[in-house]
Amino acid sequence: MSRLIVVSNRVNPPSGAGEESVGGLAMALAAALRAYSGLWFGWSGKVAKTFTGELTTRTVDGVTSAVVDLDAADYEEYYNGYANKTLWPLFHYRADLTAYDRAYGEGYQRVNARFAETLAPLIQPDDLIWVHDYHLIPMARELRRLGVKNRIGFFLHVPWPAHQVFTTLPGHRKLVEAMFDYDLVGFQTQEYQNAFEEYVVTEAGGELTGAGRLRGFGRTLRTGAFPIGLDAAEFGRMLKSAKARQMRNLMTACTVFRHLIVGVDRLDYSKGLEERFVGFEAFLAGNPDMRRQVLMLQIAPVSRESVEAYQEIRGRLDALSGRINGEYADVDWNPFRYVNKNYRRDELGGIYGAARVGLVTPLRDGMNLVAKEFVAAQNPQDPGVLILSRFAGAARQMPEALLVNPNSPEEIADALKRALTMEQPERIRRWEALFDTVQREDVTAWRDAFVAELSGSEDRVTALAS
């Protein structure tokens, strides 16, 4: 079996059961690497005075990693700049927050080239290379320039925006052309795959030559939709841990005689947190008889604090949460708890298990594994209800959730009332269908589908017959 090399911006191997991580990417990649003797390569998360290309390797919980430090200019221009101020807002349809700076683009290209130069000596002839996410779109092009002929796949964890949105990016054509140095490009949903293909056909004069085969820029490329899932078996084991049970018991005690509504998101403008807070406020305003029956807990760990847009949203959320409690709290009860800290995944599992409602309402999301974790954590005899944004990639797999438009406070409020008053038989019926999907379409299915497609793809066609 070929060795698998995973390449991602950050390398975050597990520190053991219950690692502190709200997102699911680290969990999913670690699960993939455990099944293949391979390597996880990327940035260490550290900033050095100068870039040396020196590698640090270690093996943790069966996952071998090799990491490299960035220098200060790389961090500001590549990571804070092009990745988080340009591509992230653009891919999440926030053109109003997108920053266009030539230095950012130069830093992005420079770091991708440096990563390729550092990784190339580690690659063996039969290795499969799997590159992840928007930080590293040009990685295959840089590796090809160094003579790497291995099969290289790319998976985009965030949405691919509509054609009209993506063309607002200066240099958009060059970025897409670099993607044709991959053998396979994967997306979370068919919708995102279609948007990418439409761009190539419309802007680059490309053509679809068959299902999942795209011709453009003098080359051919395979595309596909590969929805990411949970490491369902491991998550299930984690729910039985002492930490998970302790947190579930704690939350059950804290919400005695009340229903817990829970949201867990990295603090980010794409997660629809402001709209969610307003939706909960609308529920309280419109249902005075139910107010004291509920407690909403929003966990939102702070991220990217040096980016101005994140500083601004934190201030607005602080004000909103204060306004809601100021308006509706009583001497013995607050309707809303807003917490800006990380919790271990086993602790989060316990919180999900104690909740009657999971409120997952991003404005735009590649997949959203919180929705799947919430479902996996429920009691089969008395499950909670998932309220899910129709703009999350997970909505395509989870139609049995209560799907809402996250921009509408009224829809959120109505869904909360429906979830809280839903009879047990309907809750069980919806949960059983959702849980079946979470179990079947898990991280193993995602990994195996992508790697099998990459392994079985035809030899690269570097140039079409003229």
Question: How would you portray this structure in words?
Answer:
By secondary structure, the chain is of the alpha/beta class. It folds into 2 domains: 4-229 and 444-456, Glycogen Phosphorylase B (Rossmann fold), CATH 3.40.50; 233-440, 3-Layer(aba) Sandwich (Rossmann fold). The protein contains 16 helices and 16 strands. The chain has helices at 25-34, 72-91, 102-119, 139-145, 163-166, 172-179, 190-203, 232-238, 242-254, 273-286, 308-328, 345-354, 369-376, 409-421, 424-440, 443-456, and strands at 4-10, 38-48, 56-60, 63-71, 128-132, 152-155, 184-187, 207-210, 213-216, 219-225, 259-264, 294-299, 336-339, 357-360, 385-389, 402-404. It has a 10-stranded mixed β-sheet with strand order 3-4-2-1-5-6-7-10-9-8, with helices on both faces. Strands 13-12-11-14-15-16 form a 6-stranded parallel β-sheet, sandwiched between helices. β11, α10 (273-286) and β12 (294-299) form a beta-alpha-beta unit. It starts with a strand and ends in a 10-residue tail after the last helix. The model is unreliable at 17-23 and 459-466 (pLDDT under 50).
Topology summary:
Blueprint lengths: L3 E7 L14 H10 L3 E11 L7 E5 L2 E9 H20 L10 H18 L8 E5 L6 H7 L6 E4 L7 H4 L5 H8 L4 E4 L2 H14 L3 E4 L2 E4 L2 E7 L6 H7 L3 H13 L4 E6 L8 H14 L7 E6 L8 H21 L7 E4 L5 H10 L2 E4 L8 H8 L8 E5 L12 E3 L4 H13 L2 H17 L2 H14 L10
Helix pairs in contact: 2-3, 3-4, 9-12, 10-11, 10-14
Short description, anyone?
42% of the residues lie in helices and 19% in strands. The chain is α/β, with parallel strands linked by helices.
